[in-house]
Structure formats: C-alpha cells, structure tokens
Amino acid sequence: MTLTGADFVALDRIAVREAVRVVDLATPDDWARDTPCAGWTLRRLVAHMTAQHVGFAAAARGAGREPRHWREPEDMSEPARTHRSAAAAVLAAFAEPGATERAFTLPELGGDFPGGRAVSFHFVDYVVHAWDVAAALGVAVDLPEHVRLAALAVARNVPADPARRGPGFAFAPVLEVPSGSGPLEEALRLLGRAPERWPARG
After folding, report:
1. Smaller CB count within 10 Å for the chain: N or C?
2. What is the domain partition of the chain in residue ranges?
3. Minimal CA–CA distance to 148: which of 182, 180, 117?
4. Whether residue 2 has pLDDT greater than 90
5. What is the average pLDDT across 68-75?
6. Contacts of 39 (CB under 8 A, 6+ apart)
7. Are 128 and 15 in contact (CB under 8 A)?
C-alpha cells in the first residue's frame, strides 16, 4: 500500500476504536503493569494516549499551539473512561468537514503539518499504542489487514535518524526486521517495538 489517496480519517477511526477496546479490557489490577513503552506503566501510557487525543483534537480545530491541550490529565482514577472520552473527541474533530484540509500545529513534532499528514501520524501512533496496551495485557490486537498495511506504509516514512529516536522522542530506534515478518510486526519493529518480548497469552 502507498500513502497516496489513503483515507487516514477512516483508518484512524479503526485504530482508535481498537485502542479503546483493549484499554477497556484492563482491570483495576492491570494499571500498574509494565508496557512496551520503557518506564511507563499501563496507567501512564493511557494518560499519554488521552493527552494525545485531546491535543490532536485541538490541533484539528486550530488550537494546537496551546500547551494545555497536550497535558496529561491530572485525574486518572478511571483511566479507561477518561481515555474513551478523549478518543471520542478526537474522532469527532477529525470527522468535521474540512478538517484534513487545515494545517495542524503539533508542538512535539516541531511545527505545522497538512491535516491529512497529521492524521496519518495519529493513525500510526494508535496502531502502535493499541498494540502496546494489548501487549501489556497479554492479549492480541485485532486490526484488519488493510489497516496493518497502511500502518506499515506510514512507518516506512518515519525518519530513522538515531538522533531523532529514543528517550524524549515518539519512537525508539529502529529494530532489524526478520525475513517473513507480517506488516504489523514490520511496522512495530521499524518504530522500535520488539513483539517477541510481549507474546499474547492464550
């Protein structure tokens, strides 16, 4: 799959809904679990995901420069509910007429981006984060093949410069991709995840 002509709003909706599904599987005992995001518990990861949803929703409406939209929520006593509300907000913002034709200000990425490209960033992030949550819980992520292929196409375009990977950046350094890897595994490894360390149980 190529990026040209891809409907990233529709693709993003599938990825975000899958992220909501797996977050909603968590029980109270799960929030302290480790995740593939080094040093982050599941609660911290979901707080980050929530903040990114709110921030991207603001960016879609022209308010991405305001730092308050990107802050993690102070109250994470009900992580799944808080995340679910933020996910609904970003999907609504992306679905507004003309949203992908606007420029999105994304402070963490250093500037303004065309709306369609910005949505593609959010999309690949939520394919990865859906997998992160599923991995932490020991369950499988459920994404259609065309979504996996689209995520791989985006992942192949993420800069691999080591100076822009690792702590403080969106993704860890690129890992070697074994021959015969499927599209999701390849995308994950290109974005610094090691699926073999987080096998699904049952």
Report:
1. C
2. 8-197
3. 182
4. no
5. 94
6. none
7. no
Per DSSP, 64 falls in state T
The two beta strands, 103-106 and 111-114, are: antiparallel
Class of CATH domain 8-197: mainly alpha
Q: What's the confidence (pLDDT) of residue 7?
A: 94
What amino acid occupies position 80?
Answer: A
Q: Which residues does residue 111 pair with via DSSP β-bridges, in sequence order?
A: 106
Q: Helix 115-137 to helix 145-155 angle, to the nearest 10 degrees?
A: 110
Our CA angle for 3, 4, 9, nearest 5°, is 70
- Stretch (H or E) spanning 70: none
pLDDT in tens, 8-63: 999 999 999 999 999 999 999 999 999 999 889 999 999 999 999 999 999 999 99
pLDDT of residue 158: 84
pLDDT for residue 110: 85
CA distance 54 to 58: 6
Rounded-to-integer distance, Cα 117 and Cα 53, Å: 16
Q: Provide Rg for the chain, Cα atoms.
A: 16
User: Apex CA 112: angle with CA 13 and CA 11, to 5°?
Assistant: 15
Find the DSSP H helices in 61-144: 79-95, 115-137
Taking the C-alpha atoms of residue 143 and residue 34, their distance in angstroms, rounded to an integer, is 23
